[in-house]
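Quick note —
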Amino acid sequence: MLELVPVATESKPSADLARIQAAFQAQRANRWVMSRTTTAERVARLKRLREAIIARRDELAEAIHQDFRKPALEVELTEIHPTLEELNHTVKHLSSWMKPTRVGTPMLLAGSSAHVRYEARGVVLVLAPWNYPFQLLMAPLIAAIAAGNTVICKPSEKTPHTARFLSRLVRDVFPENEVALFEGGAETAEALLELPFDHFFFTGNPRIGRKVMEAAAKHLASVTLELGGKSPAIVDETADVRAAAERLAWGKFINGGQTCVAPDYVFVHESRQQAFIDELKAVIARFYGATEPERQASADFSRLVDATAWRRVKDLVDRTVAAGAKVEVGGVADGPSRYLAPTVLTGVTADMAIMEGEIFGPVLPVMTYRSRDEVYAHIQGGEKPLALYVFSQDKRAIEDVFRNTTSGGAVVNNVLIHVANPNLPFGGVGMSGLGHYHGVYGFRTFSHERAVSVQWMKSLAAVFFPPYRGKAQEWASRASRLLE
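Predicted structure written out below.
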């Protein structure tokens, strides 16, 4: 039976419908002004945001710590640094991104030129999640501003201290007809989804993602969905087991396991299972403490975001152990503090509760395999994951994994690091997402790519004008075939 945990009720801002409507109309009236802004003007806005973040980084760390006890250094590494990196990268490259891109012209269109122009989509909506409440709101906001849009944002109500920080930050940096932020819960989100935005950007789970896509469809608006899924890791017989254990433990237990690209489960070659488990135990002891009291007292381990999340993950562990899985380390849970120990399970099978969906908590199920075909059958039989991690020293084996799987992103011999590279697109595929962002990919996501052809001299295409008969028809037919 699950323990009932008393939750301190905290008032959540209700939807301010009049203010939402007023901000939307103000941004719609201002969207053409913003779309015509120069590189220098957009860079100035981004630099103003950067200065405000740097000045308030301690305040931000405290807000996130109040929401789920996230360590200050982890806030720096996973929230503040990636945001500043994205800002710096955008400021450095925005001038080149904004320039029209010349493209080639076929022989039939000789005398003309062609290019692609990048134009702001207009008024865009960014709905952010709670697990990285700062970075996952700021990254799409930076891209949207860089592309010349006006933006309305909504942070998650599950992290109220961070939401209030974001509200103050946005209000102090931007006028509301450029960027506006609204706190609140489902009522606020529903009110925003009723509005005819030009682009909808959502990070969260597939269930809400469908609602966002339905809202966008009503207005024939473009949409980006950054979702999640069960991201697999594979440790083969050639892998450096010690490095694999260390990196997987870091990627799994950072942020209390509440990371959309966290390794959700691990397939380990049966010949390396015991060595891998032994290394995992040693790593957990080094990271968080050798005993359970030490781990529970650790200042380096986050808590689950709320009682509902705690109960859900605890229930998954309880049902999985009852079905025959073994707790190698962890398994301890404390409701009032929303603590669930860094946990490793072995003897896990595909039909157990822990394998039903994305865990989003500090639990690492370990399964074994003999042949990679067993791994491929499992991964191909599920939804397409947001990330995939493979640990191997065999280049042919790595290539074989890529040929037989798909995922939003992938990393070889490490985890998570692809997200930190602004030169790579970040996004999912299928149930793990639609569209991508970061760096130039974010700029393009929030831009309309307008195709432009320019006729500079007499057009050869005139030979194909009607009437379609006689020698003109014969000549045109031969000419078109010669140019194929």
